[in-house]
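stuck on this:

***
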Amino acid sequence: MPSLSIAIVGAGIGGLTAALTFARQGHSVTLIERRTGFSEVGAGLQLSPNASRVLIRLGLAPALRRVASVPERVVVRGIASGRSIGEVALGTYMQQRYGAPYWVVHRADLQTILLDAVRSEASVRIATGRKVEEVRNAPERAEVVWTSSNGARESLAADVVVGADGVWSKVRHAVGDTNRPTFHGYVAWRATVERRLVPEELAENETGLWLGAKGHVVHYPIFSGNLVNVVAIERAKAPVDGWSAPGRAEDLLAHYSSATPVLRELLGRPREWLRWSLFRHPIRKLARGRIALLGDAAHPVLPFLAQGAALAIEDAATLGALLADGPQDVAEALAAYEQHRFERVTRIQAEGRRNGRIYHSGAIVAFGRDRIMQWIGPESMSNRYDWIYGFRAPE
């Protein structure tokens, strides 16, 4: 089968998954990364069955099982009261219902596994230290222009260019979307802590979700259960400076001054916090001509549904399926990709915003929310997202 030449801009989770997918199909791949190395800051990822199913099909299950955790449930509590509100079934229930696990994993572990797999593919070239300046569309070929770390300006022509370069995507401009993402009014604090230092009642094999009007907190075991990933969401009037910024624990504890003591104890344990601003960007275009976008470059999602990495992995699988037949009609295949993904991603973006409103409800709405969670039970709390977790790439 004839192969395509494919340039991927960005070597994050989505870009690496796409590179591996294309290489396994026999395509020639150039992976272009601005950074000169692949070190990843410590943070966790949730890989629900719609994402883990894709990674398993790529042959990554043995490596992931060595580093991932499988929480048995989500326990939902009130931040101020500490009272249990409800549960969401994960673990064995997810595996049986969807045929794939609900994994939680250290981002650096997943990136390392993907990178090792990509490096084992002879048809993949990795070009680091390249800052993309421009992407050009043409009927016969697309072109990427970059500046290398030594200042030299270079270009590469390819049958397809895939933008996997994140929220502030340069490739996005090439499909006709020049709007900038907007700050959503929240900052995410992220840290990891050794599991032995976590309060005993919060160190079980489960995900904790704490809800309150001023924000919410999520924690779950990662790194084969030896670490606990902690994410605290804070309402904020302005974004942090730069991509991320260090945070002081005393500032976070002041924000959550009314939290129950055991949660405050957890928030006081990490030695270092990093803060990320949350941005939103409504999906407008996923493809034009020979250029396509995936992941945050196309559709940043708020982390209130734990689907950011999962959607990038889904995008890569869908794009791979539609380009599997090689150089038939690339523009037509990319148009089909946009058609396949647009409605689903728009719905997930909206559901994430809705979850944020529900999580941060005032007292009256929160009372009804809590009653509903208690009434429908753990399994039904999972089942309401059948439409997300049951995803399979087109054949």
Q: What stands out?
A: The longest helix spans residues 330-359. The CA atoms of residues 261 and 334 lie 52 Å apart.
